[in-house]
Design a protein that fits this description.
Length: about 240
């Protein structure tokens, strides 16, 4: 068993309990997608590409009154230490669903009836918290594609490790810790769009965990904002 926290409250990767991993975000990295983003969230490396609004295939999925959103989260075979089967797993189907549901409150698709906006997510390297990092990239890729949005969606997990509530669980903490709570949040609207909990928390730990996660989402939001400003408000043409 790894020691997840030392006597000074320092975690196995050297972070404090309230510290995020290093994050870097690049906007507009794929020439052939309408919008795209690449995020490094600690050791996670994730690409998101957005197409649309475009015609829906198969046509029976189309909604006459609004556009629809589709999301596909996929882990590359080389993203984890043991080769992952490239076929979609139950876990990937579940994560695709929760990511779509976490983005839906933010996108405004009523002006695009009978169309679809497709979000494709490729996890190139995974190290815990991929659904949150994927959401962060997907939200930026949607903005890059020019999809009207009510707010950005910022995501980050909190959890319980060595009996303490901590921000941004890494893979080791996810495997050996006591609880993992991914949260997605629209920071300007103050609304949670995803919350899951794997593990057991007391009511007071639960409250602290939600607040810790929301604080993390607010920090992620600042980085997402900066990445967009870097692309759209500099003189450099990319
Ligand atoms: P999340 O990545 O959102 O935290 P999980 O809690 O399901 O989602 O997964 C935690 C971590 O477990 C992943 O980020 C990844 O590092 C690792 N993992 C997931 N699937 C596999 C797999 N098939 N093989 C090895 N490691 C995996």
């Amino acid at each position: 068993m790894t020691q997840l926290m030392n006597e000074n409250g320092i975690r196995c990767d050297g972070r404090r309990v309230d510290q995020l991993r290093n994050i870097s975000i690049k906007v507009g990295v794929l020439k052939n997608a309408d919008g795209s983003a690449y995020i490094e969230f600690g050791k996670n490396k994730i690409l998101a590409g957005v197409f649309g609004p475009r015609d829906v295939h198969p046509k029976h999925m189309a909604n006459q009154d609004s556009g629809i959103l589709r999301c596909r989260y996929h882990m590359s075979p080389f993203s984890v230490t043991e080769r992952k089967n490239p076929a979609p797993s139950r876990r990937e189907i579940e994560i695709s669903k929760v990511i779509k549901e976490a983005l839906l409150p933010a996108v405004i698709l009523k002006d695009f009836p009978r169309t679809v906006v497709d979000v494709f997510i490729e996890v190139l390297q995974a190290d815990g918290g991929t659904r949150c990092a994927a959401l962060d990239a997907a939200s930026i890729a949607l903005v890059d594609a020019g999809i009207p949005m009510r707010d950005l969606v910022s995501a980050c997990a909190a959890g319980k490790v060595a009996d303490q509530i901590v921000l941004d669980i890494n893979n080791e903490e996810d495997q050996e810790g006591q609880a993992d709570m991914p949260i997605a949040y629209m920071p300007n609207l103050g609304k949670i769009t995803l919350m899951q909990l794997d593990g057991i928390l007391s009511p007071s730990e639960y409250k602290k965990c939600v607040q810790t996660g929301i604080n993390g989402c607010k920090l992620v939001y600042e980085m997402q904002r900066k990445a967009l400003m870097d692309k759209y408000f500099t003189n450099e043409i990319q």
